[in-house]
Structures are given as C-alpha cells and as structure tokens.
Design brief:
The complex is a heterotrimer.
Chain A: H1 2-46, E1 49-51, E2 57-59, H2 63-70, H3 72-105, H4 109-114, H5 126-137, H6 143-151, H7 154-157, H8 165-192, H9 197-205, H10 210-221, H11 223-238, H12 242-248, H13 259-269, H14 273-297
Antiparallel strand pairs in A: 1-2
Helix pairs in contact in A: 1-14, 2-14, 3-8, 3-11, 3-13, 5-8, 5-12, 11-14, 13-14
Chain B: H1 2-13, H2 17-20, H3 24-50, H4 55-60, H5 72-81, H6 83-114, H7 118-129, H8 135-148, H9 155-179, H10 183-191, H11 196-207, H12 209-225, H13 228-233, H14 242-251, H15 258-294
Helix pairs in contact in B: 3-15, 5-6, 5-15, 6-9, 6-12, 9-12, 10-11, 12-15, 14-15
Chain C: H1 3-25, E1 28-34, H2 46-58, E2 62-68, H3 75-85, E3 92-94, H4 98-106, H5 124-129, E4 131-132, E5 135-136, E6 138-151, H6 152-157, H7 166-178, E7 182-184, H8 195-206, H9 209-214, H10 223-237, H11 250-258, E8 262-268, H12 272-275, E9 285-288, E10 302-313, H13 321-331, H14 334-337, H15 355-365, E11 369-372, H16 374-377, H17 380-392, H18 400-415
Helix pairs in contact in C: 8-10, 17-18
Classes of the chains: A mainly alpha, B mainly alpha, C alpha/beta.
C-alpha cells in the first residue's frame, strides 16, 4: 500500500518533471521551429530542385550536389574555410586565453583598466569592420600605404595586401581576428573567474609560477569552455560570409572565397537557388558532423550526473 | 549601494603584496597587453581622421589633421539617417531581439545542462543545428513564410528571425556556463526540497548573471548590427533601422566619398560603443560576483 | 414635385456628390523602390529629387512612397528578388534593365507596357535595354557609355596626344609609367570595373564577336577573347594598371583620377558628374572614344554601354497602370531630365549639363553599334563568372586560355554548345 503510494507520487513527480522540461524548452523550440526549421526544411527540399527561387521547380535529384562538388570555386571555398577554422582555433583561442588569463591573474591597476578595452572591436557591425579594413589596406589612402609613403619604405608600399592571392587571406584573417576575438576573451575571462580562489592560492603557495598555474590548473579547469569556444570558432569559420565578401568579394582568384560566398553567388547572383540550397545543406552537415564529433569524442567533464 | 560594489571591485584588484613585485614576466605581460589594447583601439580612431575633410582635402591628404573641423559630412549623414526615427526603430528591434533570445536560451540551456537524457541531448543538437545555418540559405523561404503569416514590414518580423538565429548560440553558452557551476550549490538547493522552477529562479539563473549580462548586451548589439534581415523584411522607410539607413546613406554616395563614409561609420558605431562603455563594468562586476559566491 | 420626390432627389444628389468627392480624394499611391535617395543634397541626386517633387505637384491625385536602398551590397537587387519571388513588391523599381530585368519578365513578374510607352521618345539602345522578348517593361532616361577618361592636364604637361590607336595608347602608357604616373585607374578589386576595358579590347580584336558567342556561333575561348585577355595581362605586367591593381577598389580608382595620380580610365560615363565637379577634383578630365586597333575588326563607333537610371513596373501595379504610365512618361520628359547634373540623357533634346558630359554625349551620338555591358547582357548564371574570369587576367600567372576555356564550359551548360 505504502509502496504503491510512493510509486504513485514518484510517477506524479515524473510527470511534473516532464512538464517542466517541456515548458522550459517550449519558447526556444517554438521560435526556432517557426523561423528556422521551416525555412531549413524548404531549403533541403529545394536543394534537389532546379529553381531560381521563383516557384518554378524541376526535380533534378542529386545533380545540384554533383555540380557544386565539381566546381573549383566551391572546392576552393571548402579548403579556405577549413584553413580559416584551423587558424582561428590555433591563433585566436590561445591569444584570447592569454589575454583573459593575464587580465584575471595579473591584477594591477593598469590591467584592470585595460580589460574592458579588448572587447571593443566586437561591438561593430560587420559592414563597419569591413569598411575599416578597406581604410587600412586601401592602396590609395590606406593606413599602411600612407605610413609607407611617409617613411619612404618602398618594400612596404608595394605590398599588395588584398590583391595578392597568397596574402589576401592573411590580411582578412588579421582583420577578422581583430574583429572577433573579443568574445573569446570575455567568455574565457568569465570562466577563469569561476575558479575558486582557494584552488588558485593553493597552487601558488605550492610554489607554482603563474604560467605553471595556467598550464596545470586553469586550462584543465576551463577546458570545456575552450572546447565550446573552439566549436563556435569552427562553425563561425565554416559559415563565414560577411567580412571576406565585403572586403574582397572572395577574390583575388577565389583566394578568400568561402562556402558562404559561393552560396550567395549561386542563390542571389547566379539565380541558381537549388544549387545555393545544396551548398547551404553541405555547410549545415559539415557543422553538424564537426560538432557532434567535438562534443562526444572529448569527454564532457560536467556531463551526466547533474540531473536534479 | 552600487558605489560600494564598485569600490569592492577595485579593492580586489589591489593584489596581494607578493604579486606587486616587478618580475620580468610581469613587465612583458604589461607591454604585450598595452600593445594589444592599442591594436584594438586604433582602427576605431581612423574615421575621425577622414570625416572632417572635404573630398579634395581628403584626396590629397587622407591622414593629415583636417584644416578645420567641418561638420557638413555629419550633417548630411544625420539628415539622411533621420536619427530620431532610426534610433527608435532600432531600439524596438533590439529590445525585441533581447526579449525573445535571452529568456528562451537561458531556460533551454538550463534543461540541457541539468536534465540530461537521451531525448534532451537530441533536442540540444536540434537547437544547436540552428547555429549551423548560414542566413542566406533561408532568406527566400523565410520571407515567403513571413508573408503568409503577415508579419513582413513589422518589427516582430525582424526580431523574431534575429532571435531564431541568436537562440542556438546563447543556448550553447548558457549550457556550458551552467555546466561550469559548482555542483554542490545545485544539489544543496535540491536537498532543501525546492521545486524545479525555484531552483532555477533562486539559484541557477542568478549565478549565471555574467552569462546573462553578456547575452543581453550581445543580443542587443546583434539586433543593432543586423542588416540583411531588416533589409528583407522591412519595406517602408519610416520603419527602417539605423543600419539600413546608414547603408542607404553610404550606398547613395557612389563608390568614393570616404569622408562621408567615415561619418556614417561613426554614427552607426558610436551608440554601441557608448552602450558597451556603460555596460562593460557590469560584465566585470558580474563575473567577480560569481567568483565571490563560490569562493 | 412632391415633397417625398424632392427629398429622394436631394438624397441622391448628396450621395452622388459624396461618391464623386471620395473618388476624387482617393489618391493612388505608387510605391517606388530605388537606389538613389531623395534626402541627400548632392548633385548626383538632383534628377530623382526634382522628378518626385515636380511630379507630385503636377499630379495631386497620386502619392509616392519612395524607398531608397542605396547601392551597398546590391541591396535593392536582393530585396527585389526576395519580394517578387513572394509576389509582393513595389509598383515600380529602379533597374538597369538587361537580363536581370529579363528574368523577372520571363517569370511574369513585370507589367507589359509596350503599347502605353510606345510614343515616349527615347534612344533605341535604351529601349532595347528595357525590353525582353520584344515587349517593353520600363524606361531608361539616362544611358551610360563606356569611354576613355583622360587627364588632359597631365597629357599637356608631358606633351602627350590623346591616343586614337592601341599602339599609340601603349606608347602613351609607357611614357606615363616612366614619369611615375599610373596609366590606368581600374579598381579591379570590385571585379566588374575591369570589364569595360576587356569588352573594348575584344571588340577591337574581333568586332561583334560577343554576340556570336552568345548566339553560340563561336566559343568564348576563340582567338579575339584570348588576344584581349593576353593584352590585359601584358599591360598589367608592364605596370599600366599600377603596382597593386587587385587591391584597388573602384573608389580608389576614382581617387587616383581625382588627384592626378592616374592619367586614364576606361569606365562608364556615370563618372562625368564626379569628374566635372570642382569640389571633387582639381584636374581637367576629358572623355574620348576608346582607341582602335590597326588591322583589327572593331571600329571607333562600336561602343559599350548600359542604362544609367531606369525604372521598371511590376505586375502588382496592374490596377494602377494609369498612374504608373504617367510617372514613367514624366520621368522621360525633357523637363525632368534637364535637372540631371552629370549623366548622358537618352532622351532627345536634353542639353548636357557640363563639358565632360557633353563630350560623352558626343561620343554617344556617333555610336553605330552599342554593345550592352556583358554583365547586363548574359544570363544571371554567367555574369559573376565572367567578371571573375576577366579579373584573373590581371594576375601574371593566370593561364588566359585555360580560364576562358573554363568559362566556355559554364556557358555551354547554360546556353548549349557551339553549333
């Protein structure tokens, strides 16, 4: 009798719990369902059609996919975004970590003042960032050009920042690092600050230097945050569009083309909406695979035993 | 009250004596950080070199100091942007974007962090999938759908899609942030017999304040920076947001009006920079607060 | 008359008066989406500003809802595409005509105005640009032709003559390089600005071969296309486009011309307003026909051009046809076009506003054939690739023939193989 009652109560509690979960997920899922998943479903469907986006649709099977994979532009975009993703993770995250760590652990007045600064470039709309990039690299009135003219450094003057296919990628990458790194810094800062002070003091009393402390304690502690950061940077790179398009249009000779740019070219410039949709689907799937891989392959320290 | 908090914060920055010693690495770190800060700030100063000049003055001498402070470029931009109306429109979009991004993401992130089961894990990937979508991929279906339900040329028609693009990102951030919280705090709440909702409202959500400050600030700025969704959804001039108007202004000039461009750059970025300067204190405060709770 | 009859009459009169007055009061609103705005006090916008102001004053029964999108990032084009795909949109939108407009016409999204606009005086070239499949969909009050801008001050100083042949052009360019002046401003970072130069070179080598290529009589990697591409590459190697042509945006190119750092530019006559404005430049710039090639096929009267300002009506405006036609007709009037400060009018009887525009007008009136800007004349799927292909010729290590062969494959896919 008593057992049955507890079971009943437990069941009731389970239903309550389930209702709570549903209630809390509802707003997010409702908004996403309406404004994201419906259009995505449409896009998946269109990726099998020949369509200019105007209603007339011819089923072409996998042809769009065959076409885009055969296109050198798409392949170059593929290479570029992975290159971009790799260097984002390899350069931006360590740099962000360095700034975040030092800002938290070298608590002097100067650094206290500075730490609010690093995020500033992140608040600009990307069109503005692109324009600043042009102001910097422009061969007529750019910062670098003018500097080279004043100093008389011919070698600097003749560098083709955006026009040399080998260099353009890095010019843009530098611009992007400047524009996007702020979030990583603030996010890592917030996570490093979560480390209980006694852990820090214990480590330092044991005679560890700041750098040993960073390496042995902080990085393992915020590894999950770093991993999230890596995913955000990777996915952000793979769907990158704004900055390279607005500064170089993907040129010269596709040196800065991204999958996002090929998507835009196909869907909006070439009026091949079906092919554009197919590129969108490919971007989507790449991101999905990478994320699942990153989340499941590396052990998630705070996972599982959290359920209340 | 607030003053006190701020002073606490500065006190915390007066580091223990042992760290005040000037070591080589500390000097190097200072130099590096100052340099990096300069790199971050300097591009933001560029437009001020350009904007006070006439086209000819700019053409011959882009980087010199202006002959005198000419405000005509600003006046033009100001007139075109109709700043009062533009700000009001952008504000509505931004507030809508914040309201429909942050609470849903905070709630969903909570479920995904603490109620893990096979189903919620799958749902997490479903939500996260929204983050993988490049915006150009969905523009045409999105617009067609919005026409069907009649929300084109309205502000919800702009901020709801913006929210849809923001929720996945912030759900990921919230989930990771909650996961970093000390488990004993959560369990303590649970032992006290508090309900699901109470634990969230009383313990978890307040502790995630740094994430929330960040989310509010950044979704606001996301709404502010949006161009493409506003462009697609809005069709009357009176509803255009700041970004649309800046783009109109710049795009109306042709390819070569750098001084006016610079005015546009300043007008469109200044509000967010001011906002950031006001609120970045809260970010820092928020994070130290979280540290204090745990310490 | 009985009282009741009288009252019925009274009521009827009142009612009809009411109806009449409400009809008179109901204004038709024309929604117009445009590139150029009405707010900016800038010579570039005088035409549209006066157009709207005067038209509204003359037509009290019409209201205009003018929405300007600017030219940033093809904002208007993208907006129009998305809107018309969902069958909503403005009544009129600004368009350069050509194949972009043609695609909309093919989809039945535009309003056929062939009869209504048949009496409006215009140039044949402008009319052709605003037509698709023999039907007329809009108007183009201004027409831009591409030509050779020359900094006459620099030429005088160095004792140079304006070249009439390609050989002379190259000699001039050599001399300019030797004097530290960039011969050509281009702005190839923005892709399309190099197209004008290439179009002319192809014409000078092969005449109207482009039309044959589109009609699939010759391949796009035929000899004249290759020769023109190699010529651009050769010029680039000789420094005719400066040291950093691919970093140079179209705005940079203009700046180079305005400050006398570059001496020539092959581009559209839309720049006349800018280069004739003493607030924008202190150089004396002239406009000439592009030189011919000795022994080549193309003639000096073969021009490249496109509409400069144009308006197209959409199918959603069918029930406002009268108002639409009135607006478009007025937009083509001499009175409206005379307010323009820099463009070449395609309406007969409009006096050019300045010397430079006059020079461009003269070149325009001598035209025997007008080749539309390729990127306005090819199907949309081929326009971005053609610009990318031509842009690549500026790089030393590009295999011109291979690039053109690759482009030919795309064309075959879209238009079929050469018969």
């Amino acid at each position: 009798m008593a057992v049955a009652q507890t079971a009943k109560r437990k069941k009731k509690r389970d239903w309550y719990r389930l209702g709570f979960i549903a209630l809390f997920l509802l707003p997010a899922l409702a908004i996403l369902g309406t404004f994201m998943f419906y259009p995505i479903k449409e896009t998946f469907r269109l990726s099998f059609m020949r369509s200019s986006g105007f209603g007339e649709e011819i089923y072409v099977g996998w042809r769009n996919y065959q076409r885009i994979f055969a296109s050198p532009e798409f392949r170059q975009g593929f290479v570029n975004v992975f290159k971009w993703a790799f260097w984002s993770v390899a350069i931006q995250i360590p740099l962000a970590f360095f700034i975040a760590f030092t800002c938290v652990n070298f608590r002097t007045r100067i650094i206290g003042r500075l730490r609010g600064v690093y995020y500033l470039s992140n608040v600009l709309p990307s069109a503005i960032t692109a324009m600043l990039g042009v102001f910097i690299f422009s061969p007529t009135s750019g910062v670098i050009k003018t500097f080279a003219k004043t100093t008389g450094w011919k070698w600097l003057e003749s560098i083709d920042w955006l026009g040399n296919p080998k260099l353009a990628f890095w010019s843009l990458f530098a611009l992007a690092t400047w524009a996007y790194i702020g979030f990583g810094i603030i996010y890592l800062m917030a996570n490093i600050e979560q480390i209980p002070t006694e852990i820090r003091e214990a480590a330092l009393i044991d005679g560890a230097t700041q750098w040993q402390y960073a390496w042995r304690v902080v990085i393992p502690y915020v590894s999950y945050a770093i991993r999230v950061q890596a995913i955000l940077a990777t996915v952000g790179s793979i769907k990158l569009f704004d900055l390279p398009y607005m500064v170089t249009l993907g040129g010269p000779r596709n040196a800065t083309v991204t999958l996002g740019i090929t998507l835009y070219r196909e869907a909006f410039l070439n009026w091949q909406y079906g092919r554009g949709a197919a590129i969108g689907v490919v971007i989507f799937l790449i991101c999905l695979v990478i994320t699942i891989f990153q989340f499941s392959f590396v052990n998630d320290h705070s996972a599982t035993d959290h359920s209340i | 009250m607030r003053r006190k908090k701020v002073s606490q914060y500065t006190e915390e920055f007066e580091a223990p004596k042992s760290q005040r010693r000037l070591s080589v690495s500390s000097v190097l770190v200072h130099i590096a950080l100052i340099l990096l800060a300069l790199i971050v700030i300097s591009p933001l100063i560029i437009p001020f070199f350009f904007t006070f000049k006439t086209p000819l003055e700019f053409a011959y001498n882009p980087w010199g100091l202006p002959e005198k402070l000419r405000w005509s470029n600003f006046e033009q931009a100001w007139k075109m942007v109709r700043i009062g109306e533009g700000l009001r429109n952008s504000l509505q979009v931004c507030i809508g974007a914040v309201l429909f991004t942050v609470p849903p993401a905070a709630m969903a992130g909570y479920i995904f962090a603490f109620y893990r089961s096979r189903v919620t894990n799958v749902l997490f990937y479903v939500v996260m999938a929204g983050f993988f979508v490049p915006v150009h991929m969905v523009l045409i279906p999105l617009y067609q759908f919005s026409t069907k339900i009649g929300i084109t040329n309205t502000f919800p028609g702009v901020f709801l899609p913006i929210a849809a693009f923001g929720i996945p990102f912030w759900t990921i951030i919230y989930r990771s942030f909650y996961s970093g919280l000390p488990k004993d705090m959560v369990e303590a709440g649970r032992i006290d017999g508090a309900g699901h909702f109470t634990v969230f409202m009383r313990i978890i959500f307040p502790m995630a304040k740094p994430a929330t400050v960040l989310a509010v600030l950044l979704s606001f700025m996301g709404g502010w920076s949006d161009f493409i969704i506003g462009l697609i959804m809005l069709s009357s001039q009176s509803k255009f947001t700041m970004q649309l108007r800046i783009s109109q202004f710049i795009g109306n000039l042709g390819a070569n009006y750098f001084p006016q461009y610079a005015a546009g750059v300043i007008i469109s970025s200044l509000p967010t920079i001011i906002l950031y300067l006001i609120f970045h204190k809260y970010i820092i405060q928020g994070t130290t607060l979280a540290g204090a709770i745990k310490g | 008359m009985s009282r009741s009859k009288l009252s019925v009459l009274l009521v009827m009169t009142l009612a009809s008066l009411l109806i009449l007055s409400s009809v008179a009061l109901a204004k038709t609103t024309l929604t117009i989406w445009a590139v150029d705005g009405l707010e900016l006090d800038d010579p570039h916008h005088y035409y549209v500003q006066n157009l709207v102001k005067t038209f509204l004053a003359d037509n009290p029964d019409i209201d205009i809802d003018w929405v300007a999108f600017g030219s940033e990032g093809a904002a208007l084009n993208n907006r129009i595409r998305v809107a018309l795909a969902a069958n909503v949109g403005p009544d009129i939108f600004q368009s350069w005509g050509g194949t972009f407009m043609g695609e909309f016409a093919r989809m039945g999204k535009l309003l056929d105005l062939t009869e209504e606009l048949s009496d409006v005086p215009t140039s044949e070239a402008a009319k052709a640009a605003m037509s698709y499949d023999g039907r007329l969909y809009g108007i183009a009050p201004f027409f831009a032709i591409a030509g050779l801008y020359v900094n006459e001050g620099i030429f005088e100083e160095l004792g140079l003559e304006v070249p009439t042949t390609i050989a002379e052009l190259e000699a001039v360019a050599e001399k300019l390089v030797a004097n530290g002046i960039q011969p050509f401003a281009v702005g190839a970072r923005d892709e399309w600005p190099i197209l004008a130069t290439y179009m002319y070179l192809v014409n000078r080598y092969g005449g109207t071969i482009f039309d044959d290529a589109v009609a699939r009589k010759v391949r796009f990697d035929a000899e004249p296309f290759v020769q023109a591409g190699l010529k651009i590459q050769e010029w680039s190697k000789r420094g005719f486009f400066g040291n950093t042509p691919m970093s140079e945006g179209y705005g940079d190119a203009q700046l180079l011309m305005q400050t006398g750092q570059a001496a020539m530019q092959i581009s559209g006559s839309w720049l006349c307003g800018l280069y004739a404005d003493p607030n924008q430049t202190d150089q004396t710039i002239g406009f000439y026909a592009v030189p011919v090639l000795e022994g080549g096929v193309g003639k000096v009267t073969d021009l490249a051009g496109m509409t400069d300002v144009g308006f197209v009506a959409t199918a959603t405006a069918a029930d406002k046809k009268d108002a639409v036609v009135r607006f478009l007709t007025y937009a083509m009037s001499v009175e409206a076009a005379e307010k323009e400060a820099g463009r070449v009018a395609s309406i007969p009887g409009v006096n050019p506003p300045n010397r430079l525009t006059g020079m461009a007008s003269d070149v325009f009136t001598q035209a025997e054939t007008i080749q539309f800007w390729w990127d306005q004349n090819l199907p949309p799927a081929l326009t971005t690739p053609v610009n990318l292909t031509i842009q690549s010729f500026l790089m030393d290590d590009t295999d011109v023939k291979a690039e053109l062969a690759r482009y030919e494959l795309l064309v075959e896919d879209e238009l079929g193989s050469v018969r």
